[in-house]
Amino acid sequence: MRIEEHPILDFKRGREIYFYYNGKKIRAYEGETIAAALHATGVKVLSKSLKLERQRGFFCGIGKCSSCLMKVDGVPNVRTCITLVKDGMVVEDNDMELPEKEYPRCKFEKMECDIAIVGGGPAGLSAAIEASQYADVLIIDENHQLGGQLIKQTHKFFGSKKQRAGTRGIEIAKILEEEARKNCRVLLNTSVIGYYDRGYHFLAAVNRVDGIIYEIKAKKIIFATGAQENMLVFEGNDLPGVYGAGGVQTLMNVYGVKPGEKGIIIGAGNVGLILAYQLLQAGMEVACIVEALPKIGGYFVHAAKVRRCGIPIYTSHSIKEAYGNGSVEGAIIAKLDENWKFIEGSEKDIKCDFICLAVGLTPAIRLIAQTGATISFINEAGGWIALHNEYMETTKEGIYVAGDLANIEEASTAMIEGRIAGLHAVHTIKQIPNFEEKIREYMEELEIFRQG
Ligand code: FES
Q1: Other C-beta atoms within 10 Å of 337: how many?
Q2: Is any atom of ligand 1 closer than 6 Å to the C-beta of 68?
Q3: What is the 3-state secondary structure of 306-363?
Q4: Reduced to 3 states, what is the DSSP secondary structure of residue 287?
Q5: Domain-by-domain residue ranges, the chain?
Q6: Hey, what CATH topology would domain 242-361 get?
Q7: Which tens digit of pLDDT belongs to each residue from 230-286?
Q8: Can 107-228+363-451 and 242-361 be said to share one CATH topology?
Q9: Where are the extended beta strands (E) located within 80-200?
Q10: Can you tell me the distance from the alpha carbon of 373 to that of 54, in angstroms, rounded to the nearest whole number?
Q11: Distance, CA 400 to ligand 1 centroid (Å)?
């Protein structure tokens, strides 16, 4: 299941190592996650549902859905999609038993900074680059590398030159990381688990590798925690082999592992269209793209590329059922009428071994909701979001949002929002020369990009 050749990506695998999965010795490479290593050997079932014990597989691939929880070296409920595999590691099915072994008391470490940034994706890194020109910045990210979802985007970006149009997402991630690391402190593998208002802004964060609990005091906090992929309701939607589109991109473009051999994609927005092309590049087959709307939602240029590759796009269709014994073996799709009801007799049985859901994102608000900032449901923004002003500051003084957490858009807008949030957050601590001019420039850029 490993991708050996790719026209764009060169998978530099780390040292060969071995770990144990339910007593079986498995080969892996340093630098890949447990879930990726298991997929590479064909293991798709990673956990079971609590009540009915239905088998579950990897879905989001970025630590946001909990479908990959396993017991690792005796510790239950480890998110194996964001935990790196180690030589000699023991991975088992989660049995929900509390571990017997004694854990040493955690080490606590206190940290202080002007600006804490939660999330090191395009928005968080852009905020960090801007703010660190004038202030002391700390970036906290629960992944083992910075870049957020850019690290799996092999396509070239559109938009303005300033927002790096014509550059691949994977390259943008490297550029942003390099710039941010010049002046910022970075905590990786570190999950922020709580926000507390102590008369000042306080975060509790835990490093999942060495167990250190950080107590972080910050003058301002920018939350750039991104979004999670939407699920769709249909029979068999929890079968291993039903993935979020981003989860598949992580598996194939970051770790060089195939989700299967032949897939279908639900959703013909930009993500679904780009994913179809990326699957072909990585040597897989795409049986079709299925879109519930009467027309394709993504850019014409992406749709044309997909069509040239001979992939059928069924508009006014949706998925009725995923079937298979233990993992996906096929899907039933059918045509929708104008009331979004399936038209009897229009079913098609598509043989495939994986299904990608590219049906939108929901802002990941669980952490920001702890701050007391006003949260409101705005459908056009992607659902529940923290209300914010034009400087990206929420209703809670000193708490900012940027990127998909603020509203579901694109990486290019996320980067501009990050810049605005970073600049304004610092300006409320100390005067920035030409602040008005700089911020107006970013706001105009954002406006132009959105109009485009
Ligand atoms: S949390 Fe690991 S697959 Fe979603």
Answers
A1: 11
A2: yes
A3: HHHCCCCEEECEEEEEEECCCCCCEEEEEEECCCCCECCCCCEEEECCEEEECCCEEE
A4: strand
A5: 16-101, 107-228+363-451, 242-361
A6: FAD/NAD(P)-binding domain (3.50.50)
A7: 999 999 999 999 999 999 999 999 999 999 999 999 999 999 999 999 999 999 999
A8: yes
A9: 90-92, 108-118, 137-140, 185-187, 190-197
A10: 37
A11: 26
Residues 272-304 pLDDT 10s: 999 999 999 999 999 999 999 999 999 888 999
Type and span of the H or E element at 414: helix 411-427
In 68-168, alpha helices (H)? 122-131
396 alpha carbon – ligand 1 mean position (Å): 30
Is the CATH number 3.40.1190.20 carried by domain 107-228+363-451?
A: no
Q: What share of the chain is helix, strand, coil (3-state, %, to 5)?
A: 25, 30, 45
pTM of the model: 0.94
Atom of ligand 1 nearest to the CA of 69: 2
> Distance from the CA of 80 to the center of ligand 1, in angstroms?
7
- Phi, psi (degrees; rounded to nearest 5) at 424: -70, -40
Which structure tokens are listed for 235?
């029979």
